[in-house]
Amino acid sequence: MAKVLFLIHGMGVHGQDWADSVKDKLNEVATRYAAFQSGPSLSARIDLAPITYDSVFADLLTQWNDSADALRQHITAHNIPVADVVTWLEGASESERNFFWTHMVDVLLYRYFTIKTTEVRARVLQQITSKLSALMTGGEPVDASVLAHSMGTSVAHDSLSRLGQFPIGDNQAFMVGNFRFTNFFMLANVSRILETDSLVYQSVVHPLSAGAQNAYCSRYYNYRHRFDPIPAARAFLPPVWGQDYHASENLSHFRDFNIHGFEHYLDHPAVHIPLIKGLFGPLITATEQQQALDQYEDIVADHPCPQHLHALSEELQELIESIENSSDPKTLIKAGAQLLAKAKEVHDACV
Amino acid sequence: MRAFKRLALALTYTVFTLFNPAQALEVQDDCDWDLLKDRPATSALHPSLAYIHLQAKIERGEWRTAIRALREDFEHATVIPEDEHRVRFLRQLRALESEMEVVSASPDYDTLLKNAAGVRLVRFKIERDPDEDAVHLFLREPDQITINGAMPPEVRRQYCWRAITVNRVLTRYGQDARAAAVATLNEYVGQWDAYNEYGYLQFPWELYLNGKWTTQRRNLTPPRHQWIIAHPGIGIEQAGNSVQESRRHEVVTLEPLGYLRYTEDRRFYYGLSLLATFPSDNDVGLGALLHLGRMAKLGYVTRDRDANGRKQDAVVFSIDLYQLLSTPSQQQLDGKAQAQALIEMLRQ
């Protein structure tokens, strides 16, 4: 049956071609294995379908003139309960403030501004269902999966739990029982700390082994980097979800300063091998898999600034220890801006 | 031409398979409709031919008959061993047929079909195993069937190819319902586009509070109602006892409270708000503002007569603050400075 992998981005500005780098990365990692070293590339074997929603926030911010001062005044004057984020912003470095406005403000808007939350979900569902409906025309079954990153994991969970659990009007075409995704691949999963009306451990977005009758996916894969503070607060750690839940929550590689990056997660064989196998079956042999994991270095031997990476890891560890017990979504927002700022500083120092 | 294309694809597949050093997945490839449809269909069991055989029933909407035919054909298949797998597969076919019968017999058949209700369309989904060359039917259910290399090829094709055919029929069954769902979502997105383009712009606190008061997260449509809360703006006030005495000047406006209602398509709204105006050279005017869409806002404010006894009531035309800020002119910049001063005043 036709295969499709929906790609759902996280926070920040994503133009129309945002997924090109992710597609390139998927193709690149696949060619590390025999099955993809000849014949069609990965992207030729599966329809990689990017989903976008960030125009919802970009347009809004344009309207609000993207002004920290104006927002601060408005929020403070009218008691919107994010004042401590704004207070933190005033004391933040310029770099941290920049990353707040380019990235983290999306999280703030998605989590707290319900009108925008619902708009994002509607747009995401329209894109996904349109694609599925087109692929399934004429009695063509489809094998559909989702690959989501960072805030995209929350958007994916919320949107698809809405689609799977409730009709569109009276229409049940995409509800549990009538449709099921094959794989959910969640990178830097923040769906739990950002959850609102749909609780992540109780929604239909769970694998078959966690409840076959109302499972909206066959398998669920969860990946977290141990030095990535963004998914650390109120981390996604479901109770026993059984054999169809796969997790790798201790990644520790530093192939880039921004360890939170979409492509950075995909680079690790512990992430991309199960992804490829989940999509295509055991095309990668057990021997290849073990070899890849054994040979993958967290820091490449000839990295120009290993001491910077070590220092960064220590700083991030401290940051994580300060936030991991927090259940406040605003923690994520602050931590995210700090991570991105630190990564940039280290990158600039190393160049 | 079509036969030539099929032959070419089959040859390409054969050559690719022979020279591809990758692990061969005989079972999964045999159960993959995407690969099968490009292979020559020489058996009536092949999902291409089996589906074509049912096409006439499908086009006539005879779904129950189509599933019954598949069930009967399965029952008469002599290649399939009489074992637990056969029992399970047949049980699932009968359950599906039963669902179809209930739906077909229902007086609400058209509605049920339109909404994809009453039939479990995902029942025969084929699940590819990520770790071994196997596929599963009815995965994690009591009737689970695992098809792997232990099953003779002719038997696994019986299960796989029949499952694919049933899956195709069920996919086709849900086609109109899916299209209707997509049409509804397209309509919703159209409403969001209109809401963003034609709606009354909201300051952050308004957007936040309206999200709390007028929206539920489960909704997928923009709210029909909007509260106006401490909404600053810039307007044009026209005051004077007569046309000759008429004076026009820009004023800072504030709508402390108001209410708007949108049309269903969200392209238009109407409502009323309280209004205060703050001219630079006069007292505050108090009144109300009528909203008729984004372009038509008309208000009236009253204030005490001046020292000469002249009436100072005024008609007010309000221009959205943001439209001004997005294309600043000197007047607008002056107005913006006044608005920001007002915001500062409100803070204190």
Low-confidence stretches of chain B: 16-21, 321-333
Radius of gyration of chain A: 20 Å
The percentage helix of chain B is 40-55%
Pair of chains with the largest interface and how many residues each contributes: A-B, 84 and 83 residues
Q: Can you list the strand order of the major beta sheet of chain A?
A: 2-1-3-4-5-6
SS elements, strand count of chain A? 6
Rounded mean pLDDT of chain B is: 85
- The low-confidence parts of chain A are none
The structure class of chain B reads alpha+beta
SSE order of chain B, as H and E? HHHHHHHEEEHHHEEEEEEHH
Characterize the biggest β-sheet of chain A: 6 strands, parallel
Describe the fold and architecture:
By secondary structure, chain A is α/β, with parallel strands linked by helices. Chain A has helices spanning 20-30, 42-45, 55-63, 68-78, 83-91, 94-112, 114-135, 151-165, 262-267, 269-280, 286-295, 306-323, 329-350; strands at residues 2-8, 47-51, 142-149, 181-187, 217-225, 245-251. Chain A has one domain (2-350). The radius of gyration of chain A is 20 Å and the shape is globular. The mean pLDDT of chain A is 88. Chain B is α+β, with helices and mostly antiparallel strands and 348 residues long. Chain B contains twelve helices and nine strands. In chain B, strands 4-5-6-7-8-9 form a six-stranded antiparallel beta barrel. In chain B, β2 and β3 (145-147) form a beta hairpin. Chain B starts with a helix and ends with a helix. Chains A and B meet through α3, α4, α7 and α10 of A and β1, α8, α9, α10 and α11 of B.
Topology of helices and strands:
The complex is a heterodimer of chains A (351) and B (348).
Chain A: E1 2-8, H1 20-30, H2 42-45, E2 47-51, H3 55-63, H4 68-78, H5 83-91, H6 94-112, H7 114-135, E3 142-149, H8 151-165, E4 181-187, E5 217-225, E6 245-251, H9 262-267, H10 269-280, H11 286-295, H12 306-323, H13 329-350
Parallel strand pairs in A: 1-2, 1-3, 3-4, 4-5, 5-6
Chain B: H1 2-19, H2 26-30, H3 33-36, H4 47-59, H5 63-75, H6 84-105, H7 109-114, E1 127-128, E2 135-137, E3 145-147, H8 153-173, H9 175-198, H10 204-214, E4 225-239, E5 247-262, E6 269-278, E7 285-292, E8 296-302, E9 314-319, H11 321-326, H12 330-347
Antiparallel strand pairs in B: 1-2, 2-3, 4-5, 4-9, 5-6, 6-7, 7-8, 8-9
Helix pairs in contact in B: 4-8, 5-6, 5-8
